[in-house]
Amino acid sequence: MSQRRKFIKKSILGSLIALPTLSHALPNLYSSPRKKEDGPLILSTWNHGLPANAAAIKKFKETGSILDAVEIGVKDTELDLDNLSVGLQGLPDREGITTLDASIMTGDGSCGSVAFVRQVKHPISLARAVMEKTPHVMLAGEGARQFAISQGFPIEEEKLSPKAQKAYDEWKKTSNYKPVINIENHDTIGMIGMDAQGNLAGSCTTSGLAYKMHGRVGDSPIIGAGLYVDNEVGAATATGLGESIIRICGSFLIVELMRQGRTPQEACEEAVRRLISKNRKDISNIQAGFLAINKDGEVGAFAVQPGFNYAKADLNKNELIDSKSHF
Ligand code: GLY
């Protein structure tokens, strides 16, 4: 055997022998300091997060599933007739058509999403069906609607809610196409949750940017932009102008920063700094906010502009917290 081959053989053997020692030295990535009696921790964007969190906690008590909790929690917002940024009652695109985006993810890497979908009341449940019943991650447009029909989802009449119709009629007077988001101090609902064993899940659902171009898709259904969850590290979700968030893969970036040792707060702040650096030209018109949790149950939130808030709930408390912002 040549000297080189002998060396390679020895090195491989050496590393195999060293492996068990090395693995003992690694921290247990799946452990969580939370105790069973602590129950779940649920976080969601904006003040519509309060009722959504309450629905999520209720579901968790029934099934003990953090995935069920984050799905049912945001379904509450998808049904809220006063909400103009989530669900079929959300503001339409500039053709007067409401199209919805949603995604769902668990900490083992399972994920599903739907984009540019019409006439489906609960895009979050459709996203979960994509995750659980197809070999795909994302379905869009008419294909997503056809999949909804095949799965027995009811198809709703395509009609704007009275509130959305009134706002759209007003907008049409000038038809000023200016992608400003969060002007009403709420937007997409992003929800992330963790059970006492450290299992994470997240959901994100929106009707997207008001009066957007027909066909426009935001960050919410894009895994890594509007939502990212990894049981080894933590989870993050985003709200705000989707284009600015997609440019930096916002939620994935935050989870990766936490993987490198940043706290959720530090990671959210770094993501906002990155977002500002990649969107300098329009930054005064852009709002975006991030929400994150790590395996220790530490929470972070940060936004570009003031006004972002989030709801935090466990078995005992459900509170609205103001986020800090860059400006
Ligand atoms: N964050 C929602 C959107 O941009 O569509």
Secondary structure category: alpha+beta
* Broad shape: globular
Instruction: Give the total of beta strands.
Output: 13
Question: Kindly state the mean pLDDT as a whole number?
Answer: 89
Strand content: 15-25%
Hetero ligands: glycine
CATH topology: Glutamine Phosphoribosylpyrophosphate, subunit 1, domain 1
CATH evolutionary superfamily: (Glycosyl)asparaginase
Strands of the widest sheet, in order across it, are 4-3-2-6-5-1-11-12
Whole-angstrom Rg? 21 Å
Distance between the termini: 67 Å
Order of helices and strands: HEHHEEHEHHEEEEHHHEEEEE
CATH class bucket? Alpha Beta
Provide the number of structural domains.
1
Number of helices: 9
Unreliable segments (pLDDT under 50, ≥5 consecutive)?
1-30
Could you estimate the helical fraction of the residues in percent? 25-40%
- Give a short account of the largest sheet: 8 strands, mixed
**Which architecture would the CATH scheme give at its second level?**
4-Layer Sandwich
Describe this structure in words.
The protein has helices spanning 3-25, 49-63, 66-78, 123-133, 141-150, 162-172, 242-246, 250-259, 264-278, and strands spanning 41-45, 100-106, 111-117, 138-140, 189-194, 200-206, 227-230, 234-240, 288-294, 299-303, 309-313, 318-322, 324-325. With 327 residues, the chain is α+β, with helices and mostly antiparallel strands. It has one domain (65-172, 180-325): Glutamine Phosphoribosylpyrophosphate, subunit 1, domain 1. Helix 3 packs antiparallel against helix 4. Glycine (GLY) binds next to strand 8.
